[in-house]
Fold this sequence. Notes:
By secondary structure, this protein is α+β, with helices and mostly antiparallel strands.
Amino acid sequence: xxxxxxxxxxxxxxxxxxxxxxxxxxxxxxxxxxxxxxxxxxxxxxxxxxxxxxxxxxxxxxxxxxxxxxxxxxxxxxxxxxxxxxxxxxxxxxxxxxxxxxxxxxxxxxxxxxxxxxxxxxxxxxxxxxxxxxxxxxxxxxxxxxxxxxxxxxxxxxxxxxxxxxxxxxxxxxxxxxxxxxxxxxxxxxxxxxxxxxxxxxxxxxxxxxxxxxxxxxxxxxxxxxxxxxxxxxxxxxxxxxxx
Length: 244
């Protein structure tokens, strides 16, 4: 009678291969093969749809008064307007003029969009050198699902530190409400972080991407496959007066 031991051994070996092949590491791939927790994985969770009509878009009517210190949680604002919160967060050496704990009068921006240093000075004709950009422009948000999320969430989106960044005024104007398929920062070193933040905002507010936009984002993230998805904007919720 022939021994069946070899067959048992082969079966066990085959089973081991199958089990090994099915098990994953803690870095289990998500989102079409991208590591979990990365912007690339999050991108693959976003719905892909053609842009909706921009009909009905109205900045103040649909997204609230600019820089109104709205947040997701009622009462969690710091009584400083959102523009000054972001200037305080993003400017190096941010200072006020002593008239208000909130109003930022000067500082230096290491501009993420151009890579230049910009000296900011509050005043007529000078304040516009540094603008606060909506990373996902509000017009772009409108055509990618914000029409359906309700007024309160739209106002939160418009004032969410995750979606706001101090940037070179002319670059912000050039961007307008274009998506990533039509505009990316000239500073290529910032493109990964920029796209990752757009994805984080769209994921947080249930917005969509259009096919060209998703392709452009994927091309950028191919150069930085482990770019993490940012969790928040780290704004100074308890902004204190800054010294001269």
